[in-house]
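Late entry, written up from scratch paper. The run itself happened at the end of the previous shift, but nothing got recorded in the book at the time, so transcribing now.
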Amino acid sequence: MSVQTQEAQIILIIKTIQIFKKLSCRKAAKIYKVPETILHNKMNGITSLPEYRPVNTNLNKLEKQIIINYILDQDSRGFSPW
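Output as recorded:
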C-alpha cells in the first residue's frame, strides 16, 4: 500500500473512531488491517519518523531561494556577500 493511500485510510479510520465512540483504536486497527501503533500515534499527534525533519538537514528549496534572494539584494546595494 502506498504511503499516501495508507495516510488517507488512517485519517478515515480516525474519523470513524470519533463518530462511533464505542469503537476502540485496537479494534479499528484490526478491522481495517493497519498497524495499531501507527493509528494510536496519529490520534495522539505524534509525528512519524519520515515526517520528522532533523535539525541538521540541508536547506529545502524555499530556504535556498530566500538566501539567494537575500544575497543578491545585498550585492545590488553594494554590500559584499559573505
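The chain has one domain: 3-76.
(Scratch paper discarded after transcription.)
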